[in-house]
Write a structure and sequence with these properties.
With 292 residues, this protein is of the alpha/beta class. The chain has two domains: 195 residues, D-Maltodextrin-Binding Protein, domain 2, CATH 3.40.190.10; 93 residues, Periplasmic binding protein-like II (D-Maltodextrin-Binding Protein, domain 2, 3-Layer(aba) Sandwich). It has eleven helices and seven strands. Strands 1, 2, 3, 4, 5, 6 and 7 form a seven-stranded mixed beta sheet that branches. Helix 5 links the parallel strand 3 and strand 4. Helix 1 packs across helix 8.
């Protein structure tokens, strides 16, 4: 796992015993994601397969991982159409629905997304903050008017915004709540779905058990999100107190099959931005064996 908002159902399934109820002994490997306050730049390397979580998978030290839908698309596609990588397949849509927001400081005088025309938005490349920012701004600007810049981790993005190095940044929780606590302005926000990828080592019945446990965790979180806010508060490293996280942004759903229609739409969109390699098909990228 990289960040709590991406992996909350995993953490809850482990700690509430939902994995155990399915007869599973799941080990969660924590890697430095960009939302962790003390994170380094291992999750920002230009070669995605050299980033910490991806390199663990490449080395066979983990068998399953999740991140934003477009990030999983890029990694699954390129592990199969390019040589030298351990193949991974998309095995599910869900279960976490991370919330992303484009945030600006009041001193910028920016009040609406249209004012970001030709203004670079701080992101981390090939991660959810990058893909979701493009999705959100497409509704307001022409593609050639949407600009972005690598401003590092979420902590570094807020620091850059505060210093005036950039006029807007893309953030996820708990950093949206931290930004609001500091008086920054949310221009636009959206949920974005996680996807899950796996190697061939995990068979369909094993994945089905994992997804049932995650579904139980998703239901528990939605029934009482405040019970689980501590995972995100801890990730903020002292910048948020209990009760300061905006709980309405915590949204989770049961994992489900990754459909051909979903693949075609998501792959073609990612390809149209030049953010994924060509040559992929539904057959060589997706495996819904958990539902067979």
């Amino acid at each position: 796992m990289m960040n709590a908002i991406h992996d909350l159902p995993l953490l809850v399934a482990r700690d509430e015993g939902f994995f155990r109820d399915e007869g599973l002994d799941v080990e969660i490997l924590k890697t430095p994601g960009t939302a962790q306050r003390e994170s380094d730049h291992q999750a920002l390397r230009s070669n995605i397969f050299e980033r910490t979580m991806e390199s663990l998978y490449e080395q066979g030290k983990c068998d399953q991982f999740r991140m934003c839908e477009w990030g999983i698309m890029k990694r699954a596609v390129e592990s199969n159409v390019q040589s030298g990588h351990r193949p991974a397949k998309i095995v599910a849509l869900g279960s976490a629905m991370s919330s992303f927001a484009i945030v600006t400081a009041p001193k910028t005088g920016i009040y609406e997304p249209e004012q970001l025309k030709n203004k670079p938005v701080g992101v981390s490349p090939f991660n959810g903050s990058h893909f979701t920012m493009l999705k959100m701004l497409e509704g307001f600007l022409d593609r050639d008017q949407i600009q972005w810049v690598n401003v590092g981790t979420h902590k570094e993005r807020l620091e850059a915004l505060g210093k005036g190095d950039v006029e807007a940044v893309s953030l996820m929780e708990p950093w949206i709540s931290i930004a609001e606590k500091r008086g920054y302005r949310v221009l636009i926000e959206s949920h974005s779905t996680r996807s899950e990828a796996s190697g061939d080592e995990l068979d369909g019945p094993m994945l089905a058990k994992m997804f049932r446990a995650e579904a139980a965790a998703a239901e528990a979180i939605q029934n009482d999100p405040g019970r689980y806010e501590h995972y995100l508060i801890e990730e903020a490293g002292g910048l948020l107190d209990a009760g300061e996280l905006n709980l309405r942004r915590i949204l989770n759903a049961p994992p489900e099959r990754y459909s051909r229609e979903r693949f075609d739409h998501t792959y073609q969109w990612t390809l149209s931005w030049g953010l994924v390699a060509p040559g992929a098909t539904y057959e060589n990228t997706v495996d819904n064996r958990a539902w067979q």
